[in-house]
Amino acid sequence: MTALIEPTIHPNVTLIVVVAALIAAGTVLVLDRSLVRILLGLLMVGNGVSILYMVVAGAAGRPPFVGSADPNEMSDPLPQAMVLTAIVISLATIGFLMALAYRLWQVAGTDDVPDDAEDARILDLALANETSSTYDPNVTPTTTADESARETTP
Amino acid sequence: MSSWVPNLVPMAVLLPLLGAALTLSFRRSPALQRTISVGVLATVVVVAAVLIQQTDAHGPQVLWLGDWPEPLGISLVADRLSSLMLLVSAVVSLLVLIFAIGQGQADDEEDTPMSIFHPTYLVLMAGVSNAFLAGDLFNLFVGFEILLFSSYVLLTLGGTGPRIHAGTTYVVVSLVSSSLFLIAIAAAYAATGTVNLAQLALRIEGLPAGVALAVQLALLTTFAIKAAVFPMSSWLPDSYPTAPAPVTAVFAGLLTKVGVYAIIRTQTLLFPESPLTGLLMWAALLTMIVGILGAVSQTGLKRMLSFTLVSHIGYMIFGVSLATEHGIAGAIFYVTHHITIQTALFLITGLVERLGGTTSLDRLGGLAAASPVLAILFFTSAMNLSGIPPLSGFLAKIGLLHAGLEVGTPMSWVLVVAGIVTSLLTLYALTKVWSQAFWRSAPREAAGEEVDGAGSEEFETTSVPVGHGAAARTDSQGEALATGPRDHYTDPPRRGSTATAQAARPLPRAMLWATAAMTAVGILITLVAGPLFAYTQRAAGDLIRRDPYITTVLPPEVRR
Q1: In chain A, is it the N or the C terminus that has fewer CB atoms within a 10 Å radius of its CB?
Q2: Which chain A residues are Cβ-neighbours of B156 within 8 angstroms?
Q3: pLDDT above 70 coverage of chain A, percent
Q4: What residues in B contact A103, CB-CB < 8 Å?
Q5: Is the CB of B242 inside 8 Å of chain A's CB atoms?
């Protein structure tokens, strides 16, 4: 067990580059407005994080079965166990998000994430004021917040 | 230490999961589902109460699952803090469940399918309990995921447009924070070779300051998103209000507090000499002020309460940021108080929506006459939240302010002042609700639109006798409410087709009783404030010393 605390990790640069690329690309996609792109982004971030655990596990070694090899030559099994859990969770997440995106498309005809209720309220005020810099008669805020204050701003 | 107590620890997780499986199997039999859910949660209340008594008397209770040799397996730890959290969450969830059952029986299943609600709700409770009991970071992550997943389902229950919209924001934010949590765990594991909290506590001390800071920041950001600490709080007022009333109530009460619990746990156990207390103080200050300013500007009751929820999270962070025994004790007491009171207020909002047909303050009115019982419940809870003596909100705030003054740095003075200002603004916001929704008579214009050309004169003439009638009949409480003047409070049609406004409906007895019981728990906390404060003081002492936790979890030979 002592081996765990000693600095045994010599990071694998290729893996780190892959992790960075996946997470960076995923972040860009998550910042998009369309739920399907967000879904793809989260998928990439999730995969990036999973590979990060491979970095954390250190150098690859023998399969970690008791008695099959010298324990010092074995891979660290704990990150694999953790990443397996994370993969299962992200599978379920993606399934749920796909259902959500489909339902959003069903009810709204678009899969764009709607406006924040406060944003919509500010936009409403701007729309009501023709001298405002954001005034644009063609824009309508999209929000379905249950009780956005807009119904009270005449 | 007796040997049976540790075996009780996983019951708080196992029983709800078992109950979820059973309720899922018996989804065609609502009566059986109700019995199982209530039975399970009532048992969890008992388990948590026993755990509190045992941990207070004999120190933390640890169970290594699967009986692996000590540092290898997964540990569940119940110390004073987690036992208290467990008890409060179990009591709250039981009462909310009764409320939900009352609502489910009164409504048709269209809007909120109860057969799905029961198993999901129980899984949510299993996740919350697991997060409170988790003895390692990864198990904490799993606990979070369990509760988040059921919360996704509960939030989008019924799949109506507004709920799907609100759900998207919530799901995306939660998923981002989960990814961040995983990265934080990876960093902690890479640096220390363990995810066990007790082992981490020992090993993080030996890390280079920069590495420890990176791990701390990543964890703190993750939990701050879950707890809705400013600037990571803006998702909350957008996602909570559209859910069914019991769901909003239990989310507002519990989910953010799980984040606060995780902050308290990791800050005290893993990072006792935190370089980030200054940052936390600023976060607390901004959370309080920005949150309450948001609340003041709202005209919808649900959104307003969501903003006060964000704002009052600031108080708890304030307590944590002081990093003294009194500060932590104040934060724990505040969490206890706030879980009950915020849940009570959201349940009351559910009843207001039923009675008034809307939660928009501009269109509500005359509720005090329509239902004096509801008015009393709201008034008590509102005063409790804003910290009017002698209620528990006052005591909790006094505890925190006292701890702040004790520290005595300029920043802690600023926080004390901000705490008082926030409390006053909360009072202002809730008084506005009281005078608009409860005290004044029903607004004329709204009703005028409503009766569609019939004119406001007619409303005026009919409203008086109906109001009188309702007031006179309330001796028999719940039933009388059924005959309240509901016709005049129905919603005018809204812009867009997705409006969820419902016609006013009577208040079923179970919902009213559950809400009353929730408010009563808030008052009970006031009555037992002395012993409870002493208990939180002891819990905070444990957390600051870190000793009982680490020594109980780890046997001496693996304590490194």
Answers
A1: C
A2: 100, 103
A3: 77
A4: 156, 159, 164
A5: yes
Domain made up of A2-108: CATH architecture: Orthogonal Bundle (1.10)
pLDDT of amino acid B115 = 80
Dist. CA B41–CA B129, nearest whole Å: 11
Q: Find residues 285-304 of chain B whose CB sits inside 8 Å of chain A.
A: 294, 298-303
ipTM of this predicted structure: 0.83
- Distances in Å between the Cα of B305 and the Cα atoms of A153, B381, B477 are 20, 12, 26
Q: State pLDDT tens for residues B448-466.
A: 444 333 333 333 333 333 3
Query: By the 8 A CB rule, do B280 and B224 touch?
Result: no
- Whether B553 has a pLDDT exceeding 60, the answer reads yes
The count of residues in chain B is 560
Cα A27 to Cα A49: distance, rounded to the nearest angstrom: 12
Taking the C-alpha atoms of residue B471 and residue B464, their distance in angstroms, rounded to an integer, is 11
**Contact yes or no for B165 and A144 at CB 8 A:** yes
> For chain A, what are the domain ranges?
2-108, 117-152
From B14-23, B295-304, B352-361, the region with the lowest mean pLDDT: B352-361
CA B330-B333-B339 angle, to 5 degrees, is 135
- Cβ distance A116 to B496 less than 8 Å, yes or no, reads no
Long-range contacts of B12-15 (CB under 8 A, 24+ apart): B12/B44, B12/B47, B12/B48, B12/B51, B12/B86, B12/B90, B12/B129, B12/B132, B12/B133, B13/B76, B13/B126, B13/B129, B13/B130, B13/B133, B14/B126, B15/B40, B15/B43, B15/B44, B15/B47
Q: Do B242 and A146 touch (CB under 8 A)?
A: yes
Let me know if B106 is exposed, middle or buried by CB neighbors in 10 A (0-12, 13-18, 19+). middle
* Beta-carbon contacts below 8 Å between A and B: 135
pLDDT per residue as tens digits for the range B379-402:
999 999 988 888 888 999 999 999
Instruction: Name the DSSP letter for residue B175.
Output: H
Q: What pLDDT, on a 0 to 100 scale, did the predictor assign at position A115?
A: 75
B437: Cβ contacts below 8 Å, ≥ 6 apart: B301, B352, B356, B361, B364, B365, B367
